[in-house]
Specification:
Order of helices and strands: EHHEEEHHHEHHHHEEEEEEEE
Distance between the termini: 25 Å
Helix content: 25-40%
Low-confidence stretches: none
Structural class: alpha+beta
Strand content: 15-25%
Largest sheet: 5 strands, antiparallel
Radius of gyration: 20 Å
Number of helices: 9
Shape: globular
Number of strands: 13
Length: 296
């Protein structure tokens, strides 16, 4: 078992960094999302008593850096964040809408960041192969409650529907059988070549996590962590678990190369994604690249 809680701050910072969305609760993460993601990776919560713009400047959150890394369940997608969108778009769909040529590359970086962080990673159903199915808000309430839910969804998204030039009838019906049916993910036998490749990547990355990251957590998951940002979209995080056990992640979420100090003095990378040039003192990451280093 585990004693942990979902880390929405990790999701929100990563989502803003990848998609550029700024509305609603994402507004608290639009100021330097790379730094906010790095803090979430290193310390758990992004907000640990700092003022929140969504709360009229009132403090939000509480200290979390003293907690073990396994006290946080990190995720890039879940049923709340996807299902509460009007049309239930998954992260892959949003990335393909924004930049089709780079979408798979960015999605692999998101998966690697999630799976190689020492916190507890959670994959949403179908995320492992980037399902094309939406995950719509659906329910099966009877009578008055069902009508209240339907009306509530329409009120919540009325401004969005109007701004998009759509009709309210274009919204999926939360009480409709078709909303449930549309949310079913593909059978493995029906995956296309892109999805099969993404699933293979996910399996390989999970295996690498088991080999590289999990042994570092065997004697306890409390870490002294530090982070830094380079440029607008690159960052590094280092976790020291004591007794010579350390993990470092360097990631570049932008299209332009970025350079960060090489961790652990000449130790070669344990795993890389994309173009990575590791030198004695500095590591250069190509666009949407990641380098993982471990010392045990």
């Amino acid at each position: 078992g585990a004693t942990a809680q979902w880390n929405d701050d990790f999701h929100n910072a990563l989502h803003v960094l990848l998609t550029g969305e700024r509305d609603g609760y994402y507004a608290d993460f639009t100021d330097d999302p790379a730094a906010r993601l790095a803090r979430a990776l290193a310390e758990g919560f992004v907000y640990q008593g700092e003022p929140s713009s969504l709360r009229d400047g009132r403090p939000r959150g509480e200290p979390s850096a003293h907690l073990p890394v396994t006290a946080f369940v990190n995720f890039a997608q879940n049923h709340d964040q996807v299902g509460n969108r009007v049309f239930g778009e998954r992260l892959g769909a949003l990335l393909r809408r924004r930049d089709p040529a780079r979408a798979d590359q960015v999605l692999r970086l998101a998966l690697a960041t999630l799976l190689f962080s020492p916190g507890v990673p959670m994959l949403f159903m179908g995320e492992e192969f980037d399902s094309d199915a939406p995950f719509l808000y659906f329910c099966d309430h009877g009578g008055e409650l069902g009508e209240q839910v339907r009306a509530g969804r329409r009120r919540e998204f009325a401004a969005f529907i109007a701004a998009a030039g759509l009709d309210m009838n274009d919204m999926p019906d939360p009480q409709g059988d078709e909303s449930f049916a549309a949310s079913r993910i593909e059978a493995l036998s029906a995956l296309d070549s892109r999805q099969r490749a993404m699933r293979a990547f996910c399996r390989e990355t999970i295996a690498a996590r088991r080999r590289i990251v999990v042994p570092l957590l065997a004697d306890g998951a409390r870490a002294c962590a530090e982070w830094r940002r380079a440029g607008e979209a690159a960052m590094s995080v280092r976790w020291d678990f004591g007794r010579g056990r350390s993990l470092a992640m360097l990631a570049n979420f932008g299209p332009q190369p970025a350079t960060l100090p090489t961790p652990f003095d000449r130790t070669p990378a344990a795993w890389t994604l994309g173009e990575v040039a590791t030198g004695a003192d500095a590591t250069t990451l190509g666009g949407f690249a990641l380098s993982l280093h471990a010392h045990a």
